[in-house]
Write a structure and sequence with these properties.
mainly alpha, 16 helices, globular, single chain
Length: 331
């Protein structure tokens, strides 16, 4: 018990700072209608000097790693088999093929542009699945390397910006394309990066479009499990000879899978799933603030324009292929 309190007192300053920045990010997000993840990152970058202070460093490290994994695990309670079954097999198949194709294509494109292929895996997964949350989950499963945090931060920032632009632009695109409400919902749910922006764009069109968009988006979120399992296997494969190999599946991936199964088999009270979703959101926001504090702003400036081009291409491809599938009448 004494060790527990000593550990808690060591972590408290850094965790408290991360929490304060998360609260500030939430306030700004609610008042200026922009992604809370983006505000958390920017605020963290502004206070990055705190990561060099011995008193706050341990708590910041804890928030950036442990809280990130807890938040990812709790995402499992957002997904249930009934939600996927209600949509029908065709949109589900489209989402599965889109996610796989975009990630594989992003790896190839990243290699062609001179990037580490893992950056293509990370950015492609974030674009194809669920934006910032996916970027955090995938990064937590990929092997460590010198520029991993920098790549993750850049991905989260850009995917949040692109998601906000898509929330505004894609309903107009759906209207110009003459899509029905159901088709518009499928288009928005399959292409907008973050869940909150999917909700905003879908229900701005109609209740039917909003409901369809959310279900399609949850199918994309469900793809997070197989993708982070693949990322975990990459980490095991890249473990150096003689070092301790990571577990077959990280604990938070196992927890994620268990919670998906529980939510599929049991009729959990809405208060439980809503509470878990809110706790997951807070863990991720606090973690992002901590990751921002660990990052030097100058490191992000050095990446240049090529990563921006890569993620723009990913976003345009996702929207273009989805629109083509819908207009060809395959859904």
């Amino acid at each position: 018990m004494t060790q527990f309190f000593e550990r808690a007192s060591t972590l408290a300053p850094g965790v408290a700072v991360s929490l304060v920045l998360a609260l500030a990010a939430t306030f700004l997000s609610e008042h200026y209608a922009a992604p809370v993840m983006l505000f958390a990152l920017l605020l963290g970058l502004g206070f990055n000097f705190l990561a060099d202070i011995g008193k706050t460093r341990p708590g910041i490290e804890f928030s950036a790693r442990a809280l990130l994994r807890i938040g990812v695990a709790l995402l499992g309670l957002r997904i249930g088999a009934s939600q996927i079954a209600a949509l029908g097999w065709q949109p589900v198949l489209m989402v599965v093929l889109l996610v796989a194709a975009l990630i594989v294509g992003s790896i190839a494109l990243a290699r062609t542009m001179g990037f580490n292929p893992l950056f293509g895996f990370l950015s492609g997964g974030a674009t194809a699945i669920c934006g910032a949350s996916a970027a955090l989950a995938i990064a937590a499963s990929l092997p460590a390397h010198e520029r991993k945090d920098q790549a993750m931060l850049f991905t989260v920032i850009l995917v949040s910006v692109l998601s906000t632009i898509a929330m505004i632009a894609y309903p107009l695109v759906a209207d110009l394309a003459g899509l029905t409400d159901r088709q518009a919902g499928i288009f928005l749910g399959a292409t907008i990066h973050d869940v909150a922006q999917v909700v905003g764009a879908g229900y701005a069109i109609s209740p039917e479009a909003g409901d369809t968009a959310v279900i399609v988006k949850l199918v994309r979120v469900a793809m997070l499990l197989p993708v982070i399992m693949v990322a975990g296997q990459i980490t095991r494969h890249d473990a150096t000879a003689g070092s301790e190999r990571p577990p077959l599946l990280p604990w938070f991936v196992v927890a994620f899978a268990i919670l998906v199964i529980v939510n599929s088999l049991l009729a959990l009270p809405a208060a439980v799933t809503a509470g878990a979703g809110e706790l997951s959101r807070w863990c991720l926001v606090i973690s992002l603030a901590a990751i921002g504090m660990k990052t030097r702003p100058g490191d992000l400036v050095k990446v240049g324009i090529k990563p921006v081009v890569l993620m723009l291409v990913q976003t345009v491809l996702l929207a273009g292929i989805t629109m083509a599938v819908i207009k060809l009448g395959w859904l």
